[in-house]
Amino acid sequence: MAGSTPQPRRYYLTTPIYYVNDSPHIGHAYTTLACDVLARFKRLDGYDVFFLTGTDEHGQKVEKAAQAAGLEPQAFTDKVSQNFRDLAKFMNYSNDQFIRTTEPRHIEASQAIWRAMAATKSPKGRDNIYLGKYAGWYAVRDEAFYGEGELKDGPGGKKFAPSGAEVEWVEEPSYFFRLSDWQETLLEFYRAQPDFIAPETRRNEVVSFVSSGLTDLSISRTTFKWGVPVPGDPAHIMYVWVDALTNYITAVGYPDENSPNFKKYWPANLHMVGKDILRFHAVYWPAFLMAAKLAVQKRVFAHGWWTNEGQKISKSLGNVIDPFDLVKRYGLDQVRYFLLREVPFGNDGDFSHRTIVTRINSELANDLGNLAQRALSMINRNCAAKVPQPGTLSDEDTKLLDQAYGLLAALRVTFDNQAFHEALETVWRVVRAANGYVDHQAPWGLRKTDPARMATVLYVLAETIRHIATVLQPFMPDAAGRMLDQLGVPADKRSFALLGPAGAVAPGTTLPAPQGVFPRYVEAAEGAA
Ligand code: ME8
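^ thats the input. predicted complex w/ ME8 below
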């Protein structure tokens, strides 16, 4: 339409909201990091992004943790939730909102979705919510119900869920959600949207779980108080997952479906979750949303779990990895890089000192750091610290530049698949090609024999590094920003719209003195403190 400005494309992505029973650990840092990198990528690519994270503050697990700490639940959650906000700042996450499920707007939204579900019929024409009695197993640690057949026997007659969490027998009046009537609708939904659950192996697990039959879900509790009261029956509080999942719509203005943010951002493009909580996001949540006559999110990606030097991370083993300590030891952008580079996103990964040091020294310090340092110091010394004027480009020059120009299209695909490790590998192919180019062109030898050619080579390198640094901003915002500073790229000229020849570094631009961006990790001398 003549005269109309195209609206920016929208992208809404969420992390799980974290239980506030404990301090943040590497698993929490990981999920939010993946979302942060994706949010930054989409913003640089011109999207209007809404990136949500927050804390999950109700339920028996949090209530018990508060009791153990000798605090009222509200005071306890205020305190622990703040640790997660501190982590977000410390890790340089760019979340647009931090939601807490104890906020009044969230209580209102949770009660509204409950009423909406209660007002509708299931696909088989029955009430979606009905009152009954729950008698079965519950694991407080997982805040999840388990069937007898899923459990394993442990010492002392105790029973354990597949996750390793101890279960207890619960018998109480409860409202139920008529999940069993939603089986066919869900299966049809998965068939119609093959990208809804990723990775594919996880999708297959969900489809086979739903195909094997669904039982109705207990969605209220009466034996403790720390939760959102069920509308019209305050003796019951909502099952914590009903309230927790609702955070994704509270944050964009539900129950006001006409609020600007709800209209703009819902349905979310992506819920990022760990593999342990996929069922809640890919089975229960779509069913709740359909029952409430709301649109279903577009995609759920389930990532894997981290172990520490080969062992499961647990408080009782004393091997919990504290992200604050990790960053103090290795550096923030180094940790951000490592976590997304080491493991194909979706798989489990093992953290070890040796592997992070190898990545830092060989890929950041050697491959990328040396590339930038070599090119920039030659420009500094041999071109009076100004971006050189290139002459006619050779085939080799064009080949390298074309690889740099091709980065964005390749990265868009990897980002839409949440293949962060592949995105980094794609960038490193260009880093390695650029290092090969420097070795082959040997610009240091051209200084005396052919200074015009030297200028061209250094220009091609500066342009290639500009592309590399620009696309690395989502992963390592600080280090990539410093590289762009050193290339004289102004802060407002760093978006992806300026990739390619249109945004080329201007010959003659004065550059600051180059400084190494990625120091090598050096082991402290033996016996040193
Ligand atoms: O599940 N490696 O919260 P949570 C990787 N409140 N990821 C890990 C991990 C590890 N070792 N340990 C945990 C909850 N995680 C709910 C979510 S959403 C509406 C409610 C991940 O604090 C885990 O997979 O127990 C999950 O995605 C996230 O940390 C939060 O776990």
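The chain is about 45% helix and 15% strand.
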